[in-house]
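In response to the reviewer comment on reproducibility (Comment 2.3), we provide here a single inverse folding case reported in full, input and output, so that an independent group could reproduce the run without further information from us. The structure tokens appear first.
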């Protein structure tokens, strides 16, 4: 019991320390692992980007593999257990809520100690919940394309949300803000 308390305390302190490392001018990007079944093999790696004709994944060896959509039977998207987020520079924020981003609207506020503690506590809770449920729900999402580019075209917006490059765009940020506005 004491070992568990010590472990949880250590995780809590480390979470606070790591959350403090994320600079206010940065955003977190979720990194997703993918498995792509093609006519020849199953390709595995990090989902980097996609376009109308190809999926691009980075293998564990660091090489980028373009995969034609017409060769894809299915695409499995999984949360990456090794590194869940990547911190990148954030685009300007819409602070006045009018849907437009002007030149003078940038994030300059630094979070205080209370905010950092709250972020740390929430991240520990999220990590515990993630690890408790990760074995039950291994695949985040499965897309069965069955070698049909038209099925991919119908799902391209949904698939793109998991790509690293798309998450770094202002379009993704605006969609995320709109989603938060519509939730009760």
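Designed residues, in position order:
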């Amino acid at each position: 019991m004491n070992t568990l308390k010590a472990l949880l305390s250590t995780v809590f302190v480390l979470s606070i320390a790591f959350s403090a490392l994320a600079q206010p001018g940065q955003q977190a990007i979720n990194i997703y692992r993918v498995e792509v079944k093609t006519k020849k093999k199953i390709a595995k790696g990090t989902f980097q980007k996609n376009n109308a004709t190809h999926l691009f994944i980075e293998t564990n060896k660091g090489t980028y593999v373009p995969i034609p959509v017409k060769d894809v039977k299915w695409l499995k998207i999984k949360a990456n257990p090794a590194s869940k987020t990547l911190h990148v520079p954030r685009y300007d924020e819409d602070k006045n809520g009018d849907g437009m981003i002007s030149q003078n609207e940038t994030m300059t506020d630094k979070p205080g100690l209370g905010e950092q503690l709250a972020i740390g506590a929430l991240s520990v809770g999220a990590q515990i919940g993630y690890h408790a449920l990760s074995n039950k729900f291994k695949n985040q999402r499965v897309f069965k394309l069955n070698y049909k580019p038209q099925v991919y075209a119908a799902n391209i917006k949904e698939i793109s949300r998991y790509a690293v490059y798309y998450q770094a765009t202002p379009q993704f940020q605006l969609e995320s803000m709109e989603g938060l506005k519509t939730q009760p």
